[in-house]
Amino acid sequence: MFTRRTIMKTTLAAGAVAVFAPEGTGYAAGGLSWKHFPAGPKGFFRAPVLITGASEAVLIDGGFTYSDGRAVADAIKATGKKLTTIYVSQADPDYYFSLKPIKEAFPEARVIAASDTVAAINGNVEKKLVVWGPQLKENGPQTLADVVIPKAFDDKKLIVDGETIEIVDAEGLASRRYLFVPSLNAVFGGVMIFAGVYVWTADSPTKEQRAAWIANLDKITARKPVIVVPGHMTPDAPTDLSGVAHTKAYLVAFEEELAKAKDSITLKSAMEARFPGLGMGVALDIGSKVATGEMKWG
User: What is the pLDDT of residues 244-260, one digit of tens each?
Assistant: First the structure.
């Protein structure tokens, strides 16, 4: 059986250092500040987010490699704040494989995720270790004991120094959610939002799922957030609604081109013409094959 990470393994340079956004990318409002850490191509363009208050901090998602995790841990230490919580929004390894050095640096921090996310991690983590352990070597987990597995948490809010972070489930989609911080008017998009990269559609293989995805993006837009941090983004991508617009435009175009495509090669070529030069090309390659029925996924 194919797995997302099996296909993506050729993109990995195991010893790579994370490529984080420039200093000063966080914004303060309502007593809270935030900073994101987009890791670049060798970290699958993942962008963990740190939210800090007067004395506390919450980390939304980890990354993929230990070097990513150590860099995030150092950034948290530099704030002088107490890391109370690490919330994992997605079951893919690039959302939690980097957590060991962060947890070692902050042993009292709780690591939590929705129960369906925890179940998905437990269901495939050993397969992920088989694929990625030999490639990551000392830069990632090698055994189950090296993996920080979140505890189940199905409440709909987190608290940072009295301020609320809302956990919003995506309607009509299984195990999809994003975070919303009212005092910042900010959306932290998990796996729902992409910027500067091809959109990962393989996990949403049906027209109905992609339509539900678009409907959820419209609801995010309706909130009129001033800050939007995609779950996958290039380090220089803007942190505003443009990521939502890009993801929606991509999904609409994907549907249009799929209806005309005779095979995955045709679909891929059409999408490359409409969205040239984006990162994470493997998302388009696999997404095209899954949508045209040439590959099974999951």
Answer: 999 999 999 999 999 99
